[in-house]
Amino acid sequence: xxxxxxxxxxxxxxxxxxxxxxxxxxxxxxxxxxxxxxxxxxxxxxxxxxxxxxxxxxxxxxxxxxxxxxxxxxxxxxxxxxxxxxxxxxxxxxxxxxxxxxxxxxxxxxxxxxxxxxxx
Length: 120
Hints:
The protein is of the alpha+beta class. The chain has one helix spanning 29-51; strands spanning 9-10, 13-14, 19-22, 25-28, 56-66, 72-80, 87-97, 102-110.
């Protein structure tokens, strides 16, 4: 699994270590994994009947932590929609309460894809 912190940014600053301490808060690859799984759990509960399957977490691709009074984590991760299917990129957003140590999933969705501009 790729190290999350090679692509991690915190308040716009790129990090290169495997974990980083921010005002007493430890961000690591395991935190990104935990937050992605939290959002994916909520997504599966809401979409299970509509989709007919559960989406399965594969790995974290990158993440951003936005510190402040309403700290948020934005995580991009790979997941499988079918057990033998290819990994698909998903996005998650989590409200993190560092002081109370509680996290609330806000968003989980398949990453939006854009079509390349057509060449005439």
